[in-house]
Write a structure and sequence with these properties.
With 123 residues, the chain is an alpha/beta fold. The protein has two helices and seven strands. The protein is globular, with a radius of gyration of 15 Å.
Amino acid sequence: MTGIARLQLTVLDTPEPMALARFYSRLVGLPVAESETDHDWVELDGGGGPSLAFQLAPAKTAPAWPQEGALQAHLDLEVDDLDAGEAAVLEAGATKHEHQPGESFRVFLDPEGNPFCLVRSAQ
């Protein structure tokens, strides 16, 4: 199927673009792209594939999640082993959320309070 467009980037608003870029760089294994002047916009180097970017938003606050009827975007990151993945993201600075509604995934918050999930790969 041919789409209208191709996914290039997922952009997260943040008061600290470089700090959040370094956190997700560690999680997904993509290096922070070199930026000589612009610290209002930081990208991970996806090597030509879809990637993540971080845009300065000084007034951005952590979302209230989960909240009934307040759906929002979050990242699902696939891992082979949920226990090992959990240990690694906690070491990187994530926090495990109290809301854990499933068994094949786990919910975490990044250092700014944005939710993301580790999802067990189908293998």
